[in-house]
Amino acid sequence: MTANAPSPTRIDGKYDVLRELSREGDVTLSEVRAAEGVTRTVAWFTITSPAGRHVFHTYRAVLRALNPAGLTDVVARPGAYYTVWQALAGTPLGAFVGQSVKPAEAVDALRTLAARLAEHGYALPDADIVVDGHDARIAYLRALDTPRPPEEVAALNAPVLTALDGGRVRRRRTPGAWLAFVPGVLFLAGAGYLGAQAAQTYLNPPVREVVDVTGQEAQAAARKLSALGFRVEYTQGQAGGRAIGSVIRQEPASGTNLPLGRLVTLTVNNPPATDVPRLEEMNLSQAKDALKDRAMVLGKVVKVDGTLTNTPEGRIVAQLPEPGSAAQRGQQVQVMVSTGVAGKETWLPLLTGLTVEQAKQHARAAGLVVTQVKEQPSEKVQGTVLAQTPAAFVRVAAGSPVVLTVAVARYSAPSSPTDSLPLPPVYVPPTPVQPEPAQPEAPETTPDTTTPDGTASTDGTSPTDGTATPVTPETIPATPGTSTPDTTSPETTTPDTAATAARNVTFRYTFPANLPDGSYSVIVRDADGEREIMPAADAGALRGLAATSASTAVSGDAVFVIRKDGVDYATVTP
Predict the structure, then answer these.
(1) Model pTM?
(2) How is domain 275-338 classified at the CATH fold level?
(3) Does domain 345-408 have CATH number 3.40.50.720?
(4) Alpha-carbon distance 437 to 562, whole Å?
(5) Residue range 10-85 in CATH 3.40.50.12230
(6) Where is the sequence biased in composition, kind Pro residues (predicted)?
(7) Domain 205-269, what fold?
(8) Is residue 189 within a helix (H) or strand (E), and if so which, with residue range?
(9) What confidence tens digit (pLDDT) does each residue in 189-232 have?
């Protein structure tokens, strides 16, 4: 069971806290202002276990028995356990003990109060006591975990009681003591008159019929018989199936003629009291069995939230009457049953200005999970948090999702969708052409020949008659040149491999605020084909969103394609 500490400004929605007076263990004492404007003192108890609830209920029983003058209210319900006290006029006990002359009546009142406190295991130092005239009143009583043993109570009371005996005690004198004989005279005169009347009634008593009062409530039956002139006396008895406090028999029986003033004895159904069993932490079935053993029954069942008391679902949080209190057989016991423990709550600090990693660390420390990081163009430092959901210091259930908005450099998206870029044609290398071999050229002229007589013959005929010796020509024709075929392979064009080199690109795009309804996804198209980088999402979640993907490896020319319902909607060049 858990009861949260009071709000720093308001307690239970009724008391405004002015200041905190003290804090002792699980009890916080605060000065408050009530709704009617008066000042009160509230003692708030932080209850964290069934044992703590038992201590408070025992303390409440002591308050009911003592009925302190300073007590104005006691509240005991799941999540709120506190007492309210008012200031009392009078002399504090310490100042009264120090007086040289003390009224005897006040001293007697203090001794009586000390005895009453000792009956419940409390000593005088456990209470704030004021003396007002001849009365000793309790202004505040501190709660004890367990009652003090008699020896400890006597030891704590001894210094105060001894101090009361110090100094003089002033006895009050009764004026008119000489008139004490007057009541005696009047008594004797009245007795004589009544005796005469009784003698006359006894000698000539009137007679009346005794009416039937069985089954009626005892006091109502007694009033009816007394009105007829009979005396009534009660005796205790028990009968199953009869209401407690009702008359189960009468003597003499109804219809009897009886002289007035005679005695009628009524037997009242009053079975012996039993202790209320402890039902807390039980389920309803176990509680019914426990009550049945004590001849009691289960009464009203109220379901309450078990978060504050940390009580599992179906288990009893509190009961009325309290455990251990006296009750009659057949009495009903009301219980509060837990509906279960809700998730614990937590909150985030202000994350604005932190890096994403720092913000995630804070979220983990608070028991929350960062599920989405949105990027937003901003002039702030890139990578710092601009906004957070949930907002700072707002209580949420542990494990709730956290959305961070992070600053990125500003980027302008295309104003209108563009068509897809055409793919380059497939490269086809040219076919090499083999060269033809060169043919040798024939000589253009025949060398001149000289005749013996010195004349040259140009017609190409041989000298006649052998009279002249042929002369070697001045020039010898050159050997016809032969052309060697070019065996070098024709130059071929190698495709540019730089165009297909791998690289990393990032998709950045701000969806327009008037994005048409539909389901949108994003793919990347490159030399290796197409692949999805952003799963399909509804247009309502994308309108105005500045989307950024993780770095994606591509080959060759790449383009991002935004598809609406599976059809290309827009393209974005990285």
Answers:
(1) 0.34
(2) Trypsin Inhibitor V; Chain A (3.30.10)
(3) no
(4) 61
(5) no
(6) 422-440
(7) Trypsin Inhibitor V; Chain A (3.30.10)
(8) helix 181-203
(9) 778 777 766 666 566 668 888 999 998 999 999 999 999 889 99
